[in-house]
Design goal:
three-stranded antiparallel sheet, 25% helix, 2,3-Dihydroxybiphenyl 1,2-Dioxygenase, domain 1
């Protein structure tokens, strides 16, 4: 991550309502986990790799997707993210950016990683 504290603020905020909590932290990183089901670990980029940057269309991670539950839960998460000023992708097409039967919120994290939150 290019800015660990901005990353922590973003991901803790959007994943907190889904049941994720910080389970470990160290000088260069932290982990958010949802019980024994899943965890994500975020690490500060080392200086020698920072110039390469990140782009979701390059080799590597395209995006992360999470099932949120209900449409109301997706709407609640959207309101929370709007209050925090997080970048929403496709806001003019919310909540059907990918089709009439797919209810989802798409965000971009501080490093431009796409995050998808879809109603089950």
């Amino acid at each position: 991550m290019s800015d660990l504290e901005r990353t922590r603020a973003f991901w803790s905020c959007v994943l907190g309502p889904l049941g994720y909590a910080q389970t470990s932290s160290w000088a260069d990183g932290f982990t958010l986990a949802k019980g024994d089901d899943a965890y994500l670990t975020f690490v500060q980029v080392r200086g020698e790799h920072a110039a390469a940057g990140y782009h979701r269309c390059a080799v590597g991670l395209n995006h992360l997707a999470f099932r949120v539950g209900t449409r109301e839960a997706v709407d609640d998460l959207r309101r929370l993210c709007q209050e925090r000023g997080f970048l929403e992708l496709y806001p003019g097409q919310y909540p059907f950016a990918t089709g009439d039967d797919y209810y989802a919120l798409f965000l971009e994290d501080p490093d431009r990683i796409k995050a998808e939150f879809v109603a089950s």
